[in-house]
Predict the structure.
Amino acid sequence: MNFYFSLIVCVFLPFNLFAESLPHYVEKAIQSSGLKQQYVNQLREISFRKKNIGQLENPTIGFEYGRVKNTGITGSLVGATIEQNLPINGRLGLRERGEDEAALQTSFENQWSLNEYKAQLIQTFLALWIQREEISHAKHRIEDLAVLRSYLTSRKFSSPQQKTNAYLIKKKIEEMEYILFENAHLKKKLEETLSALTETTIDNFDLRLKSPKVLKEVFSRITVTSSSIKNFRDSVLKKNNYSLEEYKRKWIPDLRVGYSYQKENVPGGNLGHAIGINFDIPLFDTGKNKSDELRAKRRVLEASWSLKDLQRQSSLSALKEKFSYYLKLSGGSLKEKERIHQKELKKIKDYFLKGLINAQAYLDTEEISHDLHYRQVNAIREIVNVFVESSLETGKDFDLKEVLL
C-alpha cells in the first residue's frame, strides 16, 4: 500500500506587509494637489498670449455722410476711410520670443514649486512617523514599568524602600502617560492633515535607509548645482535682452497706411480717392530712459543671484556636515550601542528586583535606553531631511525610492 503525504506550508506574513510606502503617499498627494494641472493652464495662457501678440491691430474703418450744393443743386456727400497700423520695427517678433522664454521659465518655476510642495509633504510625513515611533516606544516602556510596579505593590509586607520605589515608578508612568497623550493628539492632527491631502487613510509605513554607499552617491548627485538654475537665469536675461532691443528700436516708428473715398452726388460733383501714409516721430520718447531702467534692473538681478550663490554654497556646506554626522548615528555603531545597553539594562533590572539598587538608578538607566532609541530614529529622519533640503537648495528633484528601502 502506498501512502501519500502532503506537506502544507503555512507562511505568516506581517499584517502591514502590503501597507503603502512613503513615496506612494507623497506621489498621491502631489497628484491630488492640482499643481500639475496648474502648470498646464499656465502654458496654455502663455500660448494664447503669444498668439495675440503676433496679430496685427484691427484696421480702423470710418464712414461719412453729408449734404453738398453745387450750382444751386443740393445733393448728398458719401465717403469712407480705412486705416491700418503696421509695426515695422520688429517688436512683435521680439515679444513672441519673449513669451517663449516665459514658457521656459514657467517650466522651471513649476518644477521648483513641486519640489517645495513635495518637501513640505515629506517633512510632515516624517513628523507623523516620529510621533508613531515615540508612541510605540512609550507604550512598551509603560508596560514594562507597570509590571515592575505591580511586582512591588503585590507584596504583603513592603519595606519603606520598596514603597518608595513603587511610588517613583508610578510617577514615572504618569509622566510618560501625559507625554503619550500629547503625542497621540499631535499624531491625530497630522493623520487628518495628510489624509485630506492624499485623499486616503495613512496606514503605518516604515522608513529604512539604503546602504551608506548608496546614500553618499545620491547625496553627491543632488548637491551638485542643477543646470536648471543656470538655464533659468539665461532665459531671464534673454527675455530682458528682447525687451531692451525693443526699446532700442523705438526710433523706428509704426507705419500707418490709409485709404479714403469720397463722392459728391450732385451734377458735376467731385469723386476722390486718396492713399495716405503717416507715422509718429519719436522726438521726446526715444526709448533711452526705458532702456537704462532695464539695464539697471538687470544689474540688480545679477547682484542678487551672486548673493544667492554664496548663500547656497554656505547652506550646502552645512548640509554636507549634517549628512555625515547623522549618517554615522544611523549606522551600526549606534545600533550596536543600543543592543549592548539593552543587555546591560536587563542585568540592572535583575539587580533592582533583587533589591540591590533603588528605583531611581533603574529609571536613570532606562531613560538612557530611551535616549539611544530616539537618537537612532531621529537620525533617520534627519538624513531624509538633508536630502529634502539639498534638493531645495540646488533645484534638483530626487526620488524617495533612491534613499529608502
Remarks:
- The chain is about 65% helix and 10% strand.
- Residues 91-153 form the longest helix (63 residues).
